[in-house]
Amino acid sequence: MIKKIGNGAWIGLVKLQRIFMVLTAISTILLVAVNIVLRELALRSGIVLPFFAYEEILLPVAFWMYMLGSSHGSFEKSQITADIMSKVLKGRPKAYLHLLASILTFILGVIFAYWALTLVQWGLFTGANSTFFNIPVVWGQMSILVGLILTSMYNFVYMIQDIINIIVRPQLEQKLECGRY
Which residue(s) pair with 136 in the sheet? Predict the structure, then answer.
């Protein structure tokens, strides 16, 4: 029952993340497209149709798109890696190296998430807003925190899976071979 709830929550989180990724990607494209169209109309007609400070809207939306996409890459394990040693090593040494990489990735993710938290706290403390539309700067900063929390969460789950694959499963297989279960 708990596993079913956990799987449902995991799938629900990923689906929600994908929905927001699509929405932010569409919003980013539309913001840039509207600006291009208005500039072109202004050039052709001589009438100024400015879309002032669209970057103030574009920047937080693009931050959310990027950070959600980055954390989704962690979920899919599809990020670019420079993993030369795993091509050279085989068997248990490769598994231990992979576990070490998982542990370091998780630890660094938590450190970066903490830094992002302090950035969001600073943004809330200063109350900084954009110049033209008065958009709180913290909206863009919050995307960094959410993205790093999601990334750390996914990396934590994969780290636990690596620990189970290296430590728990071999012990179970050994006990099964000895007839203890």
Answer: 129
